[in-house]
Amino acid sequence: MKSQETQMQAKKQLASGVGYGILAYGSWGLLPVYWKTLKAVPSLELLAHRIVWSFVFVSAVLLVLGRWHMIREVLAVKRNRWGVLLASLFVSLNWFTYIWSVNSGHVVEASLGYYITPFFMVLLGLVVLRERLDLWQSVSLLIALAGVTVITFEYGQVPWVALALAVTFALYGLVKKLMNLDSLTGLALETVCVLPLALGYLLIKEMDGSAVFGHLPWLTTVLLLASGAITAMPLFWFANGTKRIPLSTMGFIQYLSPSLQLMMGVLVFGEPFSHIDLISFSLIWLSLALYSVTRTGIFQRSGVEKKLSQSAR
């Protein structure tokens, strides 16, 4: 009886973790439209606003929930202080790179970065967390790697923006996985670490008269204020997801974001989509389909997985 209850709890945790992952990556996949609307705001200034308003939003939520006191409790542990500092560094670098890439006409390269990210996440899961891949996860990963390799060769040069996005977000995911923190508390601490720098930069911009806040159309000001919630909620969903499912599984769900971004780049922003792009895109989605099918109970109960695993030995 207890075994059945344990299995049910594990299934619920897996389902909720996958759900949080879909919410997070689905939101990130649609964000290029939001940041394109704020193209008139310089990338560094937009990053500073993201940090400030994210802190304001998360702090307000913590106050409403009566959990602001947890900040002090978390910082009392040395390991948490280092973890928060690293997480804030990685996520800030990722934010800036992403904002710059979208507003500089590099949406396709940004999508490439998030296609590559799962490989870094899986690698970190294997090396640091000692996670293991089964046969079908390995096959899916190889197919996806082929798709990403095709995109990389088509790009024709080292995609530095894509690599920066992949490395910083994979490391951020690892830190979040290792830290046993309440999600909202962690977000508040990550933003407060870089808050002085963000506020100082915005103050300098206001003093020299080059700030955009309040000096552009009212819609721009509203969108800047909303950047806190827009930034914080996907991170909150991501943090909840990484605590419930293996990092390697989260890595596969991550493909939802670059796929949506690529579609945005082609259908909304009019960027070219060649036959090579179609081939690579198809390979990546084939890997996702294979991974999804082999994770279902129907596939496992049918005995197909066992037979194919035995034949592969």
Q: What can you see in these coordinates?
A:
The chain contains 14 helices and no strands. It is mainly α and 313 residues long. The protein has one domain. The radius of gyration is 21 Å and the shape is globular. The two termini are 36 Å apart. The C terminus is likely disordered.
Features of this protein?
single chain; 313 residues; 82% helix
Summarize the structure.
The chain has 313 residues and is mainly α. Helix content is 82%, strand content 0%. The protein has helices spanning 2-37, 43-65, 70-75, 78-103, 107-127, 135-155, 160-178, 183-207, 218-244, 247-253, 256-268, 275-294, 297-301, 304-311.
Beta fraction: under 5%
For the CA atoms, what is the radius of gyration?
Answer: 21 Å
Categorize the overall geometry.
globular
Write down the secondary-structure element order.
Answer: HHHHHHHHHHHHHH
Rounded average pLDDT: 80
Find the count of extended strands (DSSP E, 2+ residues): 0
SSE blueprint and pairings:
Elements: H1 2-37, H2 43-65, H3 70-75, H4 78-103, H5 107-127, H6 135-155, H7 160-178, H8 183-207, H9 218-244, H10 247-253, H11 256-268, H12 275-294, H13 297-301, H14 304-311
Helix pairs in contact: 1-9, 1-11, 2-4, 2-8, 2-9, 4-7, 4-8, 5-6, 5-7, 5-10, 5-11, 6-12
